[in-house]
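Supplementary Note 3. Input sequence used for the single-chain structure prediction.
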Amino acid sequence: MNSRNYKYALLLVAAVAITATGAMSQAYAQQVTDGMDGYVKGTSGIYTGNPNECWYEEDGSMLPCKIDTGDTAWMLTATSLVLFMSPGVGFFYGGLARSKNIVNVLGMTLIVMGLMSVQWVLWG
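The predicted structure, written as discrete structure tokens, is reproduced below.
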């Protein structure tokens, strides 16, 4: 083994040893309070300060959420932007394919776009 390969082998062994040592060491977390005063645990289980988040009763039942027209409009806008993005992804994938397969790739992308829109309507 020449000296160059020996150096690389030694470097590899050192890197594996350092990584293994770091993986086997114990980590100690700080014991602090949760710091969530004034925040509400939302429907996703995440603490949030959003007043429009759904609230829970004391018995665990969920109160109805406030429906905001701005949130609904943004969700519809974002959904349409994602659907408009799909043909662009198809053109990108078509550029990666061979020239005889471009039409097939574009067709598959448009089929998936239609399937996504149907799934969005049915399941949200």
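Residues 67-124 form one domain. The chain has a mean pLDDT of 76.
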